[in-house]
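Help needed: design a sequence for this.
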């Protein structure tokens, strides 16, 4: 089932027709039509809006993760026994030549199943959701994919993917250790050569967190 199909199911299950759903959610009627027809990619701003206004899980619509409806209704409410709200930030991590970190305000929440987090040893208090910009990590990560970051995992391990702040940019790259304390920031796309950081501490490299999951619309 594609994201557009899950959206159509959520609207149908709400008991509202498309026009009434548009009014209730505050989303433009024609925009909804485009999303359902698959003529426009479902945006993260829209997902946050229907999560907030209609109690529909954004992560379920986007990637089929978790349950269709948020337990207790709207995002941003208190966590429940089954689901935890993880804040999504407007900052983007570049899968390219580096994205400027211009905004870190929260823009909404995504609901994750508590048992899913527990099985992976993840603490919700150290997690956040950001998005990808660029194509250097394709086919592992695509532009506009959403990333679940664990900010508690900042010890670099080879072959894992991290969000790394470096030279005033935020990158999402695989890490490889080199002799004498150097590191490589490695892209999956071979059109992008590795970035060698000779003195990570002196050069101001900051490990924001490890990518522990990603959400992609096929």
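Sure. Designed sequence:
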């Amino acid at each position: 089932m594609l994201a557009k199909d899950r959206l159509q199911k959520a609207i149908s299950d709400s008991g509202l027709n498309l026009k009434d759903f548009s009014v209730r959610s505050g989303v433009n009627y024609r925009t909804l039509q485009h999303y359902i027809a698959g003529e426009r990619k479902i945006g993260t701003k829209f997902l946050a809006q229907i999560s907030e206004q209609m109690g529909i899980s954004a992560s379920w619509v986007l990637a089929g993760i978790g349950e269709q409806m948020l337990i207790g209704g709207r995002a941003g409410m208190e966590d429940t026994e089954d689901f935890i709200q993880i804040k999504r930030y407007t900052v983007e991590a570049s899968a390219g030549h580096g994205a400027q970190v211009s905004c870190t305000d929260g823009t909404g929440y995504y609901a994750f199943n508590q048992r899913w987090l527990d099985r992976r040893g993840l603490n919700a208090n150290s997690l956040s959701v950001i998005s990808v910009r660029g194509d250097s990590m394709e086919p592992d990560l695509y532009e506009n994919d959403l990333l679940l970051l664990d900010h508690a995992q900042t010890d670099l391990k080879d072959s894992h993917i991290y969000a790394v702040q470096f030279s005033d940019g935020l990158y999402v790259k695989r890490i490889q250790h080199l002799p004498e304390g150097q590191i490589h920031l490695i892209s999956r796309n071979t059109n992008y050569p590795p970035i060698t950081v000779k003195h990570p501490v002196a050069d101001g490299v900051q490990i924001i967190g490890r990518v522990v999951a990603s959400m992609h619309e096929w």
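The chain has a mean pLDDT of 79.
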